[in-house]
Amino acid sequence: MTVHDVSAVLKVSEETVREWIHARDLRAIRFGREWRVAVRDLESFLNARANRPAEG
C-alpha cells in the first residue's frame, strides 16, 4: 500500500502516515521516492495501537 492508500483507509493525512514511518511506529519499505506498507504491517500497527492504554 502507498502512503496515500494508508491515509485514505485510516482517514488521516499523508503527513501523519509519514511521521509514523519515520518514527518507526509503522513498518514500511522505500521504493525509490515512495514508501510502501505491507497489509500485514498495517494490521500489526493497528493491533499494537488498539491494545495500548489511552495517553493523557
Short characterization:
With 56 residues, the chain is mainly α. The chain contains 3 helices and 2 strands.
Give an account of the 3D structure.
By secondary structure, this protein is mostly helical. The protein has one domain. The protein has three helices and two strands, in the order H-H-E-E-H. The protein has a two-stranded antiparallel sheet with strand order 1-2. It starts with a helix and ends in a 6-residue tail after the last helix.
Give the topology, please.
Elements: H1 3-10, H2 14-22, E1 29-31, E2 34-36, H3 39-50
Antiparallel strand pairs: 1-2
Helix pairs in contact: 1-2
Mean pLDDT over all positions: 93
Q: Give the overall shape, derived from the CA principal axes.
A: globular
Task: Give the tally of β-strands.
Answer: 2
- What is the structural class? mainly alpha
Strand order of the largest sheet: 1-2
Distance between the termini: 31 Å
Q: What string, H for helix and E for strand, traces the elements in order?
A: HHEEH
Q: What radius of gyration results from the CA coordinates?
A: 11 Å
